[in-house]
Each structure stands twice: as structure tokens, then as C-alpha cells.
Amino acid sequence: MRTRLIFVRHGESLHQLEGIVGGPRGCRGLTALGHEQAHDLANRLTNEVAADRPVAVYSSVLRRAVETAQPIATAFGVRPVADCGLCTWHTPPYADGLPTARFRTEHAVPGGGVFRPFEEGNESWAELVVRVSRAIMEIAHRHRGATVVLVGHSETVEGAFHALAAQPVFRGFDLDVPPASITEWTTDHDPGGWPPARWTLRRFGDTGGWAKA
Ligand SMILES: O=C(O)[C@@H](CO)OP(=O)(O)O
After folding, report:
1. Which whole-number Å values give the CA distances from 4 to 90, 115, 123, 169, 213, in the listed order?
2. How far is the CA of 154 from the centre of ligand 1 (A)?
3. What is the largest CA-CA distance in the chain?
4. Domain holding 78: CATH number?
5. Could you tell me if residue 112 is inside a domain?
6. In the record, what terms sit under GO molecular function (predicted)?
7. Is residue 17 in some structural domain?
8. Which atom of ligand 1 lies nearest, measured to the CA of 100?
9. Is residue 53 part of a domain?
């Protein structure tokens, strides 16, 4: 009984190009290229996982992820489910739409780190890891033995390294997750079992040939 989690980082987004904090207000969705990438992802996944169709497509609640998930869900004939647990940083409302550089410098918290937020009112990294990991584990448990697509952010893909591969909260390496890329983990163990299932990382940041945005 193989459980397969296919993580997708959203396509190119306006907030990235504009360099602003892309929370619920600041995120204005995908660029034209991002929409094209989302359709390409849907086609790629349809070809690649034809024999093992995803039973569900999840996304974060942010527009860039919702818009990326839509064509994928349509391709598999399912209704996308938005789950706030898969979001990137839960930044505070005052920061939403601010230039990211300004948020990071003018609102920096002295001594911010793993357990203390880096910016005033932001989540800490440890809080993000727990929130995202919990959402991933709930989804894996709910769909054990099946294939699921999870559309999110760099941090959603990073979260899987903590949830599925038991990495320490302070990881000893960085991850660079390209937009519109696929990262895939599988396990033949019970994802809800104890001790925890061992997962295999099948691919990371696979863009299928798109130039890195
Ligand atoms: O929110 C963001 O700007 C970043 C943070 O790393 O995530 P993503 O671009 O993947 O949404």
C-alpha cells in the first residue's frame, strides 16, 4: 500500500516579481507565465501519474497556490481543497503587501531565530514547521495508500523534510525550491503507524525543463 505525496510549489507570482509580502491581501495571484506553468504542471502530472491518479488536490489558501492547484484539480476531476496549514509564513496583517525588504529590516526582531520570530508579529520558524508538518501528516493519514497533490510554497516543500524525514527544526542545510516544481515522497509503510513510517524522496524541485524564474 503505497502512499504518494506530490508537492508542487506555485507558479511565478506577482508578489515575487514585486518583492512584496504576499499574504491574503498582498498576494494578487500568478503572472501570465505562472498560469502557463500551472497548466503545464497539470499536463505533466496527468502524463506522469496516469496509472496512479491523485484522489485529492490540496492547496494553501493563498491565491498563487489556489490558482496553481485549479488546473491540476480539473485535470484529475476533483475539487481542490484549500488548507491554511499549507501556507507559507503567517505574516501579521500590518505586513501584508509591504515590500519584503522593508518588513525584514524595519520590523526585524533583535535576536530573532528558531523559536523567536525574525520580524515583529510573525510566526517563528518552529511554529511554521509544526503547523505545516501537522497539515502534511493529517493529509497523509487521511489518504494513506493513495496519491495526493499538495500545492503550496517553498516552506510547504521544506516542511515535508521535517514531517516525513524527521529533520531537526534547525536544519543543517538550505533548500532552493524553484517555482512550478514537483517534489515527491512515497512510503510503503502506514503513514499513521508507530514508529513513524520511513519515506523515500523520489524527486526534488523537478521543473520538467522550465527555466528557473
Ligand atoms: O511567501 C513568500 O514570498 C515565499 C516565502 O519564502 O514563499 P513562496 O514564494 O513560495 O510563496
Report:
1. 27, 31, 29, 23, 27
2. 6
3. 52
4. 3.40.50.1240
5. no
6. phosphatase activity; phosphoglycerate mutase activity
7. yes
8. 3
9. yes
**Which among 8, 153, 207 is the best mutation to test ligand 1's pocket, defined by most ligand atoms within 8 Å of the CB?**
153
DSSP designation for 151: E
**Sign (positive or negative) of CA dihedral 29, 93, 169, 138:** negative
Closest C-alpha to ligand 1, atom 8: 153
Give a yes or no: residue 114 inside a domain: no
CA of 179 to the centre of ligand 1 (A): 10
Number of domains in the chain: 1
- CA gyration radius for the chain? 17
DSSP lists the bridge partners of residue 82 as 59
Residue 211, all three cell numbers: 527555466
In DSSP terms, 5 is beta-bridged to 148, 185
ipTM associated with this complex: 0.93
In a structure prediction context, what are the per-residue pLDDT tens digits for the chain, which is 213 residues long? 899 999 999 999 999 999 999 999 999 999 999 999 999 999 999 999 888 999 999 999 999 999 999 999 999 999 999 999 999 999 999 999 999 999 999 999 999 899 999 999 999 999 999 999 999 999 999 999 999 999 999 999 999 999 999 999 999 999 999 999 999 999 999 999 999 999 999 999 999 976 544
**How remote is the CA of residue 143 from the centroid of ligand 1, in Å?**
26
- Compute the distance from residue 193 Cα to the ligand 1 centre, in Å: 32
